[in-house]
Specification:
Layout lengths: L1 H27 L1 E7 L7 H8 L2 H4 L2 E7 L3 H9 L5 E4 L2 H8 L6 E8 L4 E5 L15 E3 L6 H12 L9 E3 L7 H6 L5 E5 L2 H8 L3 E5 H5 L5 E6 H6 L1 H20 L2 H8 L8 H13 L11 H13 L9 H4 L3 H6 L2
Parallel strand pairs: 1-2, 1-3, 6-7, 6-8
Antiparallel strand pairs: 3-10, 4-10, 5-8, 5-9
Pfam families: NMT1_2 (PF13379)
Subcellular location: Periplasm
Protein name: ABC transporter substrate-binding protein
């Protein structure tokens, strides 16, 4: 009986010690609200960070919201509707040029190339860029990164988008695929998985990658307001560490494994298509293998914007990019 009492007392004592500890651990969890510009397989490492528990390992509880558009994403961020935004780095330049007192800082890069592909209506065995001359080209919305990169690549191949093509840019982003499927355009600039789905269904044929042609550029980056980063230094570092873990995991694992992990975010897309898209992005180096946004990429971004006539002002790398956090987590 005495032995049983001792055991019971010990168990009670353990419970008394554990319960407050569990409560403390729960209190240490920090919520971070992410606004992503769109839902895309292009952002696979972000979904890996969530599904593999890398954010949770850092004591972060992330709430992911898709805001559907760069302007809406930045509005959510600057109005404190989100803590962190995943969006194109050009948006931070637009906000800065408007004279904000609390600039948006890029602190962790997720993708490092354009994510669109050139899709031809008819199958072309030996594609060359000059075959676009005189064609009807269904392009992306004017002022957005896809359109700017698209025109930049065309010019690199000696094509004047305004004079050598019948260029269509008045179709809303969400309606571009259906417009092409219904017969508009000889060529179209599309994101995945639409490009691969069209190819599988025979609607079109992928003939080139704008990401490969344009080189490295900070296409989508995690960013936050400067005030948030100053007030939450530890949280931002933990966030960046989780992303870096995911980036490493993506580099080290097969496309099949990556596709299975991110599949819950794309329930309407068949697994074989997800695998195909992941493989295409991974093989062309679209997924950044670390969170550092370097000066060369930043300058390439501004050159592309300038070429398109959309750069409001040139901004030094150190003004809107913080690499010290990424560098610390990589040590």
């Amino acid at each position: 009986m005495k032995k049983w009492l001792k055991i019971s007392f010990s168990l009670c004592l353990i419970a008394i010690l554990i319960i407050p500890l569990a409560a403390c651990n729960k209190e240490e969890v920090t919520k971070v609200r992410i606004a992503e510009v769109t839902r895309s397989i292009f952002y696979a490492p972000q979904y890996v960070a969530i599904e593999k528990g890398f954010f949770e390992e850092e004591g972060l509880d992330v709430e992911l919201t898709t805001t559907w558009g760069g302007d809406k994403t930045m509005t959510a961020l600057v109005s404190d509707g989100a803590d962190v935004a995943l969006v194109g780095s050009e948006t931070s330049i637009y906000v800065y040029a408007q004279g904000t007192s609390d600039p948006v800082i890029n602190f962790a890069q997720l993708t490092q190339t354009d994510g669109t592909f050139l899709v031809a209506r008819n199958k072309i065995d030996n594609f060359s860029w000059d075959q676009l001359k005189g064609s009807t080209f269904l392009g992306q919305r004017k002022g957005g990164m896809p359109q700017m990169v698209g025109e930049y690549v065309l010019k690199q191949h000696g094509i004047d988008p305004q004079n050598d093509l019948n260029l269509i840019q008045n179709v809303d982003f969400g309606n571009i695929p259906s417009a092409f499927a219904s017969g508009t355009g000889d060529f179209v600039q599309l994101f995945e998985p639409t490009a691969s789905v069209f190819e599988k269904e025979g609607v079109g044929h992928i003939v080139a990658s704008f990401g490969t042609e344009s080189g490295k550029v900070p296409y989508t980056t995690f960013m936050a307001k400067e005030s948030f980063m100053k007030d939450n230094e530890e949280t931002v570092e933990k966030f960046t560490r989780a992303i870096y873990k995911a980036q490493q995991w993506v580099q080290e694992n097969s496309t099949e494994e990556i596709a299975k992990v991110v599949q819950p975010y794309f329930e309407d897309t068949e697994l074989d298509i997800i695998e195909m898209v992941v493989d295409r992005y991974k093989s062309q180096g679209s997924f950044a293998d670390n969170p550092i946004l370097d000066k060369e990429e930043w300058e390439n971004l501004q050159n592309i914007m300038d070429e398109a006539g959309e750069l409001p002002k040139r901004v030094d790398h150190g003004t809107l990019v913080n690499t010290s956090i990424a560098e610390n987590v990589m040590k």
